[in-house]
Amino acid sequence: MPVVPIPAAMFLATQLTHLAPVDVAILVLYFAMVIFIGFYVKGSTNTSEQFFLAGREMSAWIAGLSFVSANLGSLELMGWAGAAYQYGILATHWYWIGAIPAMLFLGIVMMPFYYISKTHSVPGYLQLRFGEGARAVSAVSFAFMTVLMSGVNMYSMALVMKVVLGWDINFSIWVGAVTVAIYVMLGGLRSAIINEVLQFVLIWAGAALIPILGLIEAGGWTNLKSQIAVRMGSTDYMHMWSTLGSFNGNPMGVHWTGIVFGLGFVISFGYWTTDFLVVQRVLSANNLRAARLAPVIGSAFKMFVPFFVILPGLLALVLLKDSSGHLMQLYPDGSDMVLHHGMHSFNEVLPLMMIRYLGPGLLGLGITALVAGFMSGMAGNVSAFSTVWTYDLYGAYINKKATDSHYVSMGRWSTIVGMAISVGTAYLVMNAASIMDYVQELFSFFIAPLFATVILGMLWKRASKAGGFWGLLSGTAASVAMWAMVYHDKANIRFMILQPHASVDTIMRVQAMAANLYRAAWSWLICAVVTIVVSYCTKATPEAQLTGLVYGSTIIPDDGSTKIYQKPVFWAVVVATVLFALNLWLW
Amino acid sequence: MSTPHVDPSTEQSLSIWFFVGILTLFSGLIILGQGVYEFWHPGITVLANLHPAFWWGLLMTLFGGFYSINFRPGKG
C-alpha cells in the first residue's frame, strides 16, 4: 500500500479557503461518531445474515433513508451540480424521471419477489431464476462495477478537499478509505445503514442553506430565471421538456426519446431496481410492507434532492464571480483552461458556492456533509461488493461448504480488499476526462442489460435459463462494443441515435451523457431480444421451480396493510402525482 | 424467518435516531456559538448580515435536542 503523506505535505498553494477551529471540531465529531458506531455494532454482526443483511431488522423509514442515502455519493453532489451549471435544469431529469418511477416500481411491483424469494442479493435472485451462468456474469460485473464506483466517490472527495482546503489528494483518499473500511469491516451492512441515515441528515443540514441564501441573493426564482436567460442568451437552460424536440434544441444535445426510454426506462429502472447496492438496503427491511414502503419513502426524499444539488449549479451561473467582480466561467475537467490557466471546472461548482455563503462553523458543516456523502457512496459500494463476493463468488464457486463464521470473516476481509481496489481506481479516475461521463459509462455497460434479464425473469414465465444467461451476456457485450465503437470514432454515434445521415453539427452536439442513454437503451433491447429468442428455442423451466420467483406463479402474501394510508401503493400515487405536477411546472 | 419484527432503534441500547440527535445537537451548538460570536465580529461571506450561522445553528440545536431527548437510552 502507498505511504500516506505526512500532514506537513498536505497543503497546496492554491487552496480556496481554510478550516477554522469550529469547522475542524464538526469534522472531527463526525469522524469520531462513525468510527464509534462501527465498534458499537460489531457485537451484533456475528452471523452472515446480520453482517450482510443487517439481520433483516430495519424499519421502513430506516431502510428507505438508507436506500436513498446510499446513492448520495459524488455523483449526486458535485457531479450533478456541475451538470446543472453545464446543461441547465435538464440535469433534474436524472432525479425525477430518471429515479422516481423506477423507485416506485421497485417498491410496488418487484420488491415482493425479491423479498419472498429470501434472496440475499440480486445475483442470488438470478441464480434462483436462471441458474449459475447468469449469476456468475452478474456477480462478476457487479463486483467490478462497485469497486470502480467506490473509487469514483473516493476521488471526488479528495477533489473537494483539494479545491476547498488545499489538502493533498493522496491524504484525502487514504483518510476516507481507512475510515470507511473500519466501520464497514466491523459492522457490515448494519453499520453502513446507521451511518447512511446519519449522513442523510448531515447532507440535508449541510447543503440546504446554499440554495436558500442563493435564492435570496438572486432575488427569488423568477429573477433567477430572468438572469440565466440574459447570461445564456436563451431560456433553454430553464426548461425540462419543451427543448427536447430535437438534438439541437438544448444544451445537452439530447432528444426526448433518450430521456424517456434511455434514462427514464432503461438506466433508471436498471439502477434502482437491479443494482444490488441500493436493493440491499431494502432487503434489510423487517417485513414485506416495510420492504415495499422503503423505496416509496426514499423516492419522496429523492424528489427534493435537486433543491440542494441542481439549484446551486443554476445559481452559480449568475452569482459566482471572480476576483475582479465579473461572472465566473467554469470549464470541463481536464480542459486546457483548467489544467494550464488556473480556472475552475464544472465539478467544482458546489464547493465554490459553499465558500461563497458559508462562514466558520457552517463551512465545517457543509464540508462534513460533502465528506459524509462521499463516504456514504463508498460504504454502499464496498458493503455490496463484500456481500456479492462472499455469497455469489467465493461461497458459490470457491468454498461452498464453509461455516457461517468463516463467511462473516471473509466478508470482513473482502471489505478491506474492496477498499484497496477502490483506492487504485481512484488514482485511475484522476486521468478520466469527466467523472460524470465515466460513471455513466459504467452504468450502461452492466446495469441496462441486467435490468432486461431481471424484469423478464420476474414477469415472464417462459424465460428459460439459457435465455437469461445468453441475453445477459450478449447485452453486456453489445454495450461494451458500442462504447468502443464511439470511442474509436465519435461519428458512429449517428447509428445509435438512428440518424445515419446526421450532420457533423448534430453529431458534435450529442454529449457523452446523451450518447450513453442511447447505448443503454440498445443494450437493453439486445438483451431482451436475445433472451426471448433463446427462451423460445430452449426448454422452459418447470412451473414448480418458479414459485416465489415469477409473476403468475407466485401468490403475493398480504403485507398487513389495513387502512389506505398504510398501503405503499397509496403513497406511491401521492409521490407520482407530485412528480407529475413538478414536471408540468418546469415544462 | 424467525427474526422478530423490531426496529433496531429499539432493539439496541442506543437508537439510530439517538445518534442522529447527538450529532445534530453538538454540531448545532458549535454553529450557534459561532453565530453568537459573529454578532460582534461579522463574517465576510456573502449575506453574512443575515446571521445564517446563528439561525441555522439554533434550528439544528432544537432538532438535535428533540431527537436526543426523545430517543435517549433507556426510554421505554
3D architecture notes:
With 587 residues, chain A is mostly helical. Chain A has a domain of 410 residues: Sodium/glucose cotransporter (Up-down Bundle). Chain A contains 24 helices and no strands. In chain A, helix 3 crosses helix 13. The N terminus of chain A is likely disordered. Chain B has 76 residues and is an all-alpha fold. Chain B has one domain. Chain B starts with 7 loop residues before the first helix and ends in a 6-residue tail after the last helix.
Number of strands of chain A: 0
How much β-strand is present in the residues of chain A? under 5%
Portion in beta strands of chain B: under 5%
Q: What oligomeric state best describes the polypeptide chains here?
A: heterodimer
What structural class do you assign from the helix and strand content of chain B?
mainly alpha
List the topology elements:
The complex is a heterodimer of chains A (587) and B (76).
Chain A: H1 21-42, H2 48-53, H3 60-69, H4 75-87, H5 100-116, H6 122-130, H7 132-165, H8 169-207, H9 209-218, H10 221-232, H11 256-274, H12 276-283, H13 288-302, H14 306-319, H15 336-340, H16 349-357, H17 362-398, H18 404-429, H19 435-459, H20 465-488, H21 493-496, H22 504-509, H23 512-537, H24 568-585
Helix pairs in contact in A: 1-8, 1-17, 3-8, 3-12, 3-13, 4-14, 5-11, 5-13, 5-24, 6-7, 6-19, 7-8, 7-17, 7-18, 7-19, 7-20, 8-17, 8-18, 9-14, 10-14, 11-19, 11-23, 12-17, 13-24, 17-18, 19-20, 19-23, 20-23
Chain B: H1 8-11, H2 16-37, H3 52-70
Helix pairs in contact in B: 2-3
